[in-house]
Specification:
- The structure holds two protein chains of two kinds.
- By secondary structure, chain A is mainly α.
- Chain A has one domain (5-135).
- Chain A is built from five helices and no strands.
- By secondary structure, chain B is mainly α.
- Chain B has a domain at 284-499.
- In chain B, 79% of the residues lie in helices and 2% in strands.
- A two-stranded antiparallel sheet of chain B has the order 1-2.
- In chain B, helix 4 (83-110) packs antiparallel against helix 5, helix 6 packs antiparallel against helix 7 (164-194) and helix 11 (248-281) runs antiparallel to helix 14.
- Classes of the chains: A mainly alpha, B mainly alpha.
- At the A-B interface, helix 4 of A face helix 2 of B.
């Protein structure tokens, strides 16, 4: 598909908007429908589109395999680390009330925000890792 | 901010699950075999420390309740630890610590270097899932941890060096998913009837809806679902291949922990949540369990006699031993249940040391078939000595841990006037004598031949861990305070139920 001008131009136009939409779903997850999981899938879909139109090797130059394999555990670390930080501020695991040192509402807000970033990172990178694994089959 | 040690003291229930989770993340980031093992070792040995501290707290202060996220238990997940699951936490974490100590060179031998990091990552995730299932007091959270442990277990099994490992992992994946689905359907029904997922609250609200059909259906769904997970005969089909083709160290760990945790879940739901009256009074569950337990004690034992692969033989024997544990449950009495729970503990020790001995043999010679084991007792006396000792425990020879639990089971059967059942237990033990005896005969009474003539020396840590467990089998045959005493406490606690 690398030679099809219409597809290439349209994809190039779409991909930034897909990413921005993904971030919108991520950041508005606490007010409306959405959250880390959905946003992760949308952002991964942006990468898939790039890989389908421009080829797997181009996609792997933009989002290297090593980075993807690093991000999968990193997201879990962000999530679990937020829980561990709750110990430091003297509350139970994943209790966000004291995260902002007193203001419970602010604390919950921060807690959800951080945890959802962890979900975003892991979901997006896992989707990309699965895609790379399938798309790369038979190449080696 | 308060002092650091005090701070962590209150969070031990969360740490029990979070430490292996964090460990697996660190391992996934490191991904180098040796470094990964060191992280795994640190995490695995911190587990028994936490578990013993929890057991100590439970013994002195009674049940611990830990609200995850600080929310009240009606709206969130509660970790609830009493004597029954504190005991299980100790068992699982000690097994994990010992197997981790045993593992590095066996794994380096059986798994390609680039995969070793992932192996340790999944091993820690599996540990996290099993401990989570044991510690949580929330029906849906059990399902989540069940999936965590099962998914990582499929990965562990698929890493075996035989190509059939992949197929057996896939078989387990299909059946395991089916089991988890059945469990979650049952939990869904319970949730609709009681409006809560917290096991303790559920028990309180169950009386109001007693004798309703969804409740019985939920029990059936959960029974079948967990039955698949704990390989209750005839739902055991995934187990023999999975145990036979997984890496040796993984087999030892899975065989000594995974089915035991599933048994605990069944005990918890049947006894603590439903209570003896609803689960066994309103349904023929006891009779059905008894029939299945008897079949499980006989049929797989007979199959085990005809196995050519020693790991597969031990796997079939595991299915038979689960029959004993189920028998203890089906008797629904203090003595019977004590026997069942103590067999859960004893069988974990016995089977782990048998599988670890086989792991030493595989490391040294690559042999897995029984007929190739001719004379291996003479060339590898240390390893096969431990095998014999643990084998005696499996048969239930007096002076070994296996005898203690079988004694309780026989007493429990006789108490209810079921003399024929005592005869069945003895008959099944005779079958165990045949399949263990067959290996012993080949290993010790024949001239060494083939690969068995000149085995390479197994690493010291592998032999030592195998012997530690084999000696524990003997030790708990004499010191029954832990194996039978704590099991008795757990049994009376479970029989009393949450209400």
């Amino acid at each position: 598909m690398r030679l099809d001008t219409i597809l290439r131009v349209c994809a190039k136009l779409f991909i930034p908007f897909i990413f921005v939409f993904g971030l919108y779903v991520q950041l508005h997850g606490d007010y409306g429908p959405g959250g880390g999981f959905q946003a992760g899938v949308i952002i991964a879909a942006g990468v898939f589109l790039y890989a389908i139109i421009y080829g797997l090797s181009a996609a792997q130059r933009a989002v290297p395999k090593g980075l993807v394999e690093f991000m999968v555990p990193m997201g879990v670390l962000i999530f679990a680390g937020t829980g561990i930080y709750s110990f430091v501020v003297d509350t139970n695991y994943l209790d966000y009330n004291n995260l902002a040192h007193g203001d419970a509402v602010e604390g919950q807000h921060w807690g959800i925000f951080l945890v959802e970033i962890g979900v975003l990172v892991t979901v997006a990178s896992t989707m990309i890792a699965i895609f790379y694994a399938f798309a790369g089959r038979g190449r080696q | 901010m308060s002092a650091e040690p005090l701070l962590l003291q209150d969070h031990l229930p969360a740490l029990q699950v979070v430490v292996p989770l964090l460990g697996s993340v660190v391992v996934a980031l490191l991904r180098q075999g040796p470094a990964a093992w060191v992280v795994t070792l640190v995490c695995a040995w911190s587990m028994p420390l936490i578990a013993f501290a929890l057991l100590d707290q439970v013994m002195t202060n009674g049940t611990i309740s830990y609200a995850l996220g600080g929310w009240p238990r009606e709206v969130s997940i509660e970790y609830r630890i009493d004597q029954a699951n504190a005991f299980l936490l100790v068992l699982v974490s000690i097994m994990a610590a010992l197997v981790t100590t045993y593992m590095p060179r066996s794994i380096a031998d059986e798994i390609a270097p680039e995969r070793q990091g992932w192996y340790y990552c999944m091993y820690l995730l599996c540990l996290c899932g099993l401990l989570g299932m044991a510690i949580t007091g929330d029906a849906f959270n059990i399902f989540v941890f069940m999936e965590v442990s099962s998914l990582s277990m499929y990965g562990l099994i698929a890493m075996g060096r035989d190509r059939r490992a992949m197929v057996s992992a896939y078989q387990y994946l299909v059946l395991g998913t089916l089991g988890a689905t059945f469990y979650v359907i049952g939990v869904g029904l319970l949730f609709t009837m009681t409006g809560t997922l917290n096991l303790y609250d559920m028990a309180g609200k169950l009386e109001a809806v007693e004798n309703t059909r969804p409740l019985i259906a939920a029990l059936a769904f959960i029974g079948v679902g967990i039955g698949l997970k704990l390989a209750l005969f005839p739902l055991h089909l995934w187990l023999p291949n999975a145990y036979a083709f997984a890496p040796s160290a993984a087999t030892a760990f899975i065989a000594s922990t995974a089915t035991k945790v599933a048994v605990y879940i069944l005990l918890r739901i049947v006894f603590s949540v439903y209570g003896v009256n609803i689960a066994f009074g309103d349904t023929p569950a006891a009779a059905a369990l008894l029939a299945l337990a008897i079949m499980a004690m006989i049929a797989p034992s007979v199959v085990a006699i005809y196995q050519a692969n020693v790991k597969r033989m031990l796997a079939y024997s595991s299915v038979a031993q689960i029959g004993y544990i189920m028998l203890g449950i089906a008797l629904v009495s203090q003595t019977g249940l004590t026997g069942g729970i103590s067999h859960l503990f004893n069988h974990a020790l016995i089977k782990a040391s048998l599988f670890l001995a086989v792991g030493c043999m595989v490391y040294s010679t690559g042999i897995t078939r029984i007929e190739q084991m001719a004379g291996i007792g003479r060339t590898m006396p240390a390893t096969m000595g431990a095998f014999v000792l643990a084998g005696l425990g499996l048969i239930g020879v007096p002076g070994t841990a296996g005898f203690v639990s079988k004694w309780f089971l026989i007493t429990g059967a006789v108490e209810q006037g079921l003399w024929w059942l005592a005869a069945v237990i003895v008959f099944s033990s005779v079958l165990a004598m045949i399949y263990v005896g067959r290996v012993v005969e080949v290993a010790w009474f024949r001239e060494p031949s083939g690969a068995a003539v000149s085995p390479r020396k197994p690493p010291l840590e592998m032999v030592v861990v195998t012997w530690v467990l084999a000696l524990a089998v003997v030790y708990f045959g004499f010191d029954t305070d832990i194996s039978a005493g704590v099991a008795g406490d757990a049994a009376s606690l479970l029989l009393a139920g949450y209400r």
